[in-house]
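Lecture notes, unit on protein representations.

Consider one protein chain, 184 amino acids long.
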Amino acid sequence: MKLNFGSAHDNLGEDWKNVDALDWEGNTDILHDMTKFPYPFENESIDEIRSVENLEHISWRLTDSVLKEWNRILKLNGKLHIQVPDAGKCMEYYVKRQICECVPHKADRGGFFADPDCVRCSGLAKINPQRWLLTFLGAQKHPYDAHLSIFTENMLKKKLAVAGFKNISFKFDLYKLKVNCEKV
C-alpha cells in the first residue's frame, strides 16, 4: 500500500490511498488527521509515503511525532517523499533584498523571473512578496491551511535522522525542498 498524506485534490492513481483530514469531493480514501496518533495502519505495512506541501501545516511541536509515526508504518526499505516550502531559501531572499512584485506570484505567467527593467530590484529579485509570505503563513483558505512549522534543509535532515530515516537526499525546486529518504 502507498499513502498520499494531505492529498487534497491530488489523485495519484489506484496504487495510492489518499489520506486527508478533510474529505475532498470524494478524493479522500482515508479520512485521518495526521496529528492523531497512532495512525490506523499496522507497523511496517506501508510501501511508500508521499507528503507534498502538508508537513508545514502540522505544529512544530508534533512534527517529530509525525515523522516517527511514518517510520513506524513504513516497511523496511520503504520510501518517503516530502515536499515543503524552503524557509531557508526565503530567509536568504529577504536578507539579500530579493523580494519584489515584479516576480510573478504564479508560474503560469512565464515562470518565476524578475522583470529585468524593474526600477525597484533591477531584475535581481527571486520571489514575489505574497509567495514569500505564504512560505511562512500558508494560504489560510480553510482551518488546516495555515503553516505551523517551517523547514530548512538542515532542520528537516536532522528531524528525519532522529525519526530513523536513512539515505536522505534533497532536491531544490524554486522555493521548495523536495526530500527523498527511506527506512533502512
